[in-house]
Amino acid sequence: MGVLAVGTHAMPAGTRFERHTHRTHQLAWASSGTLAVVAGARTWVLPTTRALWIPAGVPHEVTSASHSTMTSLYLPAATEPVPAPAWDRPRPITVSPLLAELIRYLDDQALSAARRARGEALVLDLLEPVAVTTLDTPLPADPRAREVAQALLDDPACPHSLDAWGRRVGASGRTLARLFLSGTGMSFGRWRTLARLQAALPALAAGEPVSRVARAVGYETVSAFVAAFRRETGVTPGAYFRTRR
């Protein structure tokens, strides 16, 4: 037996692994499709080119908006592959073509102890954090702002202004703007942008055309969608989802 264990779970659309913890460290990877991992107040949406390092004991939940496969590496907490404190909290990891193949390689139960040890050492050496802005959409605590936020998560393409939302929930547009800023740490406009981009990720990961995805989440032009995506993630949709294929 080696140090690393590999677990694979098929996750049909809508699958949710409720909030839980592990005694081991976990590297959660969408080997197909897209996963959303919630840990603390942050949400990471993972295409096949990203994984998330989840330290032992950190509560988290995992969902799949489309049919996906989660392949995870589990590492005993007593083994420290990287120095603290950089790895004492969830960190997104780049899944290179080599790392992807090595994870699959270690899933072979027939490997000799020597080959497994060499493969595990290389896997741990390849775990490199990547600076990726998470598309977090925290919900404001105020029930009026929370109702607006939930409605936009359900229908991110909704074009209503804050004044229009205010008439629906019984608050002025100015009040809602203040509640979003105090409750989420960001303006209403940026929050809605992140909600739209987060909603777009599963469809982009499934290979749908950018033009169709942009319209589905409320953008009138592809250029506006790509500009918003680059502004929030630092890369274009194509670069974000560039795969080994």
From TrEMBL:
Superkingdom of this protein's organism: Bacteria
Record's keyword terms, sorted: DNA-binding, Transcription, Transcription regulation
Cross-referenced PROSITE patterns: HTH_ARAC_FAMILY_1, HTH_ARAC_FAMILY_2
Transmembrane segments: none
Domain (HTH araC/xylS-type) ranges: 146-243
Alphabetical list of CDD domains matching this protein: cupin_NimR-like_N (cd06124)
Gene3D superfamilies to which the protein is assigned, alphabetical: Homeodomain-like, Jelly Rolls
Protein name stated in the entry: Helix-turn-helix transcriptional regulator
